[in-house]
Amino acid sequence: MSAVQAGAHSSPPEGRYGPGADARADRRLRITAIVVGVLVAAGIGWYGYDSLTGDKVTGQVVAFEAVSAQSLQIHLEVHKGAGTVAVCTVRSVGADHVEVGRKDVTLAQHGKQVDTVVTVRTTARGETGELVGCSTAPRG
Q1: Dihedrals phi, psi of 4, to nearest 5 degrees
Q2: Is the pLDDT of residue 47 over 90?
Q3: Which residues contact 64 (CB under 8 A, 6 or more apart)?
Q4: Sign of CA dihedral 118, 124, 129, 134
Q5: Which residues have CB under 8 Å from 108's CB, separation 6+?
Q6: Which has more pLDDT, 52 or 139?
Q7: How far apart are the first and last CA of the chain?
Q8: What is the mean pLDDT of residues 90-114?
Q9: With bands split at pLDDT 50, 70 and 90, how would you rate the model's confidence at 82?
Q10: Could you tell me which of 80, 76, 89, 88 has the C-alpha nearest to residue 54?
Q11: What whole-number distance in Å separates Cα of residue 137 and Cα of residue 84?
């Protein structure tokens, strides 16, 4: 086999795949990569913005005490934005693990940390005080 014959098989025959087929494939790949890159950057930007400016509200029960067979006091500590109004739901559970009381508490204080004692009315003696969850109060 001569050197001319070996070189003839190293590239496809000219015009076999149409004029500019490689250029079209490169352009499609480039456009796809740009679109994917923009979407990923937008997703990362949104996540970062939401993490830094989002009004996150967290809370925990510090202590609870059954005051009587019809009420339980819950000491609640809530962390929120200084200007955020938070709503936290607390509940009391009896010895048989059935919910015996529930209350929504609105916290409008302007501090970043709010400590409050909540009295929950119960239908039977409450054995525990629990925080169901906290969120920002709906506006309007």
Answers
A1: -70, -40
A2: no
A3: 72, 73, 74, 75, 92, 126, 128, 129
A4: negative
A5: 85, 137
A6: 139
A7: 86
A8: 92
A9: confident
A10: 80
A11: 8
Amino acid found at 14 = E
Q: Round the average pLDDT of the chain to a whole number and report it.
A: 85
CA–CA distance from 79 to each of 60, 87, 92 (Å)?
9, 12, 21
CA distance 31 to 79: 45
**Strand order in 71-79's β-sheet?**
58-68, 71-79, 113-121
- Residue with the bigger pLDDT between 107 and 11: it is 107
The pTM assigned to this predicted structure is 0.61
Secondary structure of 17-52 as H, E, C letters: CCCCHHHHHHHHHHHHHHHHHHHHHHHHHHHHHHHH
Handedness of CA 113, 67, 121, 97 (dihedral sign): positive
> 3-class SS at 100?
strand
